[in-house]
Specification:
- It contains 18 helices and 23 strands.
- The protein is about 35% helix and about 20% strand.
- With about 550 residues, it is of the alpha/beta class.
- A nine-stranded mixed β-sheet has the order 13-12-14-15-23-22-21-18-19, with helices on both faces. Strands 5-2-6-1-7-10-11 form a seven-stranded parallel β-sheet, with helices on both faces. A three-stranded mixed β-sheet has the order 16-17-20, with helices on one face.
Length: about 550
Amino acid sequence: MANTKYVFVTGGVSSSLGKGIIAASLAKLLQARGYRVTIQKFDPYINVDPGTLNPYEHGECYVTDDGAETDLDLGHYERFLNTPTSQANNVTTGRIYQSVIEKERRGEFLGKTVQVVPHITNEIKERIKILGKTGNYDIVITEIGGTVGDIESLPYIEAVRQLKWELGDTNALVIHLTLIPFLSAAGELKTKPTQHSVKTLMESGIKADILVCRTEHELSEDLRRKLALFCNVKQEAVIESIDASTIYDVPNLMLEEGLDKVVLQRLVLRDDDEPNLDKWNSFLQRHKNPTCEITVGLIGKYVELQDSYKSILEAFIHAGAANEVKVTIESIHSEHLEDQTISQKIAHLDGVLVAPGFGERGIAGKIKAVQYAREHKIPFFGICLGMQMAVIEFARNVLNLPEACSVEVDDKTAFPVISLMEEQKTVTDMGGTMRLGAWDCKLVPGSKVAEAYGVEEISERHRHRYEYNNEYKEALENAGLQTTGMNPKTGLVEIIEIADHPWFVGVQYHPEYKSTVANPHPLFVAFVKAAVQQSTKKVNTKVS
């Protein structure tokens, strides 16, 4: 730990300013200079993890290889750094208190009165340092969720204060992300909210070392000088973070502002090598200069909130760049898909993705979307619940089992083609009890998925309770729904395909979690390629 440096990212004035993107962008720049770097997120809510939170409440729940259900910011960390995160990279107040209470029950505090200081703050500090102790990192960046001044964040801010004092000025620093609002009536940017935010941070005993200022307009030198003077930071440590057309521009913007240089100088680390962003900028070049455009329908039931399917949307950006194509996502609420509207909403699409989800709401619309894509030869991609809907649709309309269903939707169904996993039948607690994390899968040679991956054995991340019922496997395969991927140990069906379809693939796992800028997920790349071919075919049909 002695050699590990720590960077803390706090937020002020407003939530949703993009602490995760700033943290990920800084980490990318440091990584591109050759430093071993990781990022962790400390969330102030009392849930033990976001696994039981409604997507409308907190956006998607991201899953790591080791089965942690985490905040969606960890997805940004992985997409930027191309390195996996773990249970240690996301900690919540609920997990902190749970751990402290369990220690108290075991008598580990020797009869002491358990208090926020020092017991809760000590637990937070231990969680902050764990990656430095075990991960072999030069720099650990810690994002503190919430906004300075929130009651929920106070123990974290106090823990950062203590740790910064313990580590020393050259081993730890604080970046404070704040908002510089533009008042159109006055026609100027206002620094007062930032001054108050920095003051609030100082009242907690922490002096910000670097200010990152979110703004819609460029900061003048006079305004930077004013911020430096009133917020007690050096002028070169006032960093402009102007609105960008894509989050993937932010590392370059931070490089131009010198954020990485200021951090390295403050931590007394070498800063003479320029970061190598060649691969990153090559991706950006392809992303910003597509040769054509396709439209993919995202069929889900949380489409009102974009963050509910964040990893899927980002995976399409990566796959689009790989194919040099712009992927326009058309969000379609599955509850709005009915017999009289299905053609109007789907016929024009170049591809259909039926998204993951839970519960029976919107199921009928998802099944109709699968049927339309199958019958009209539109490239189809089903993820988790989307794959299960494809199995149900096929059983109903090809096997002629109109009552076929998932026991999640109808536990009395006569044809449970999707059933509850055996190990889930005794589960009563909802949090952290699904089939989670990375599991192996063996692919069938010559299948579309094997062609996409280029290998026959893969590992993918899961998050589900229900599974393909193998009792119907033979009948489904004989009718044309091929099993092209299975877990070699459990026999669980992981992937289904239809051979005589341009591209019809359903997967039980979540490929979107492993798509990064450096390694776009092969299934998304193949799906986008199929959608491009579909678009070209439609154009040629119209011309002829």
